[in-house]
Amino acid sequence: MNELTPRFWKVFFELYEALPRQGPGNQACAARALSLCRYLPSSPTVLDLGCGVGGQTMHLAELTCGPIVAIDSHAPFIERLKATLAERGLSNRVRALVGDMAQPGQLPKNSHLIWSEGALYNVGIENALRICHALLRPGGHLAFTDAVWRKENPPPEIKASFDLDYPTMGWVDDVLAAIEKCGFERLGHFTLPDEAWWDDFYSPMKLRIEMLRRKYAQDQEALAFVDQLAQEPDLHHRYSDYYAYEFFVVRRFANSSEGRE
Asked: What pairs with residue 94 in β-bridges?
């Protein structure tokens, strides 16, 4: 993706807005991460940052009992999530709002749990951790996924792909060091299995890509953008042993004397 033109972004969102989720993950992983949140109350307040169309928001609504605020900066994602909430009778319990984690003053504070799947890297992982620390109540939990390297010397095409989207991507130990630096207690972490990439993300993406190829069969510019976007699942199929998504579950210390604030 050398030239990210307005036309490219139109095709990009035409693809991503139609997907059930905008990154890897599934309900089993969400349940496993929640099981590591050992100090949550029975009806926690949850803030879902970078919710997309709400794939994981729906999992949270099924797996928890408290109120949820779901936030994303892309308004069409939020509109689709609002429609889903209305359809499922969840509008009174789950609020979907347009917002930007880069502007934390606009975000709700004192949540028991902040959840973020594949979104914190957009503002830099250490900066995002500090933002979440400030938004959580003392003793609150943060559960998030982040892309990490698994093997040295990745092939040039996969390195170029991540250099474009996430040039500061590190290793699990790098994220763990940032977690400690930002005043969190580590509760656990695990690697997302391959089915978490395919079942609700890449498989629907490949179907949508074929639909867009038919739609733009006579539009060479749009078709080139579709072909660029199609590289992502193909690269994952070939090179997934070089990188992973890791689910991290941490807790803000209950008071400043327990850790670095």
From this structure: 68
Q: What is the pLDDT of residue 3?
A: 61
Helices (H), the chain: 6-16, 27-35, 55-63, 75-87, 125-135, 156-165, 172-181, 195-197, 203-215, 220-239
Prediction pTM value: 0.94
Give 172-175's long-range contacts (Cβ < 8 A, gap of 24+).
172/148, 172/246, 174/148, 175/125, 175/146, 175/148, 175/246, 175/248
Each residue's pLDDT tens digit, 164-188: 889 999 999 999 999 999 999 999 9
Provide Rg for the chain, Cα atoms. 18
CA distances from 231 to 106, 225, 239, 257 (A): 36, 10, 12, 48
Sorted by sequence, the CB contacts under 8 Å of residue 66 that are 6+ apart come out as: 41, 43, 44, 45, 46, 112
Q: How many other CB atoms sit within 10 Å of the CB of residue 152?
A: 7
Query: Residue 72 forms beta bridges with which residues?
Result: 98
Q: How many CA atoms lie less than 13 Å away from 27 in the CB half-sphere?
A: 8
Q: Which domains does the chain have, with CATH numbers?
A: 24-194+241-254 (3.40.50.150)
Residue 151 burial (C-beta neighbours within 10 Å; 0-12, 13-18, 19+): exposed
* Rounded-to-10 torsion of CA 145, 149, 154, 159: 50
At what angle are helices 203-215 and 220-239 packed, to 10 degrees? 160
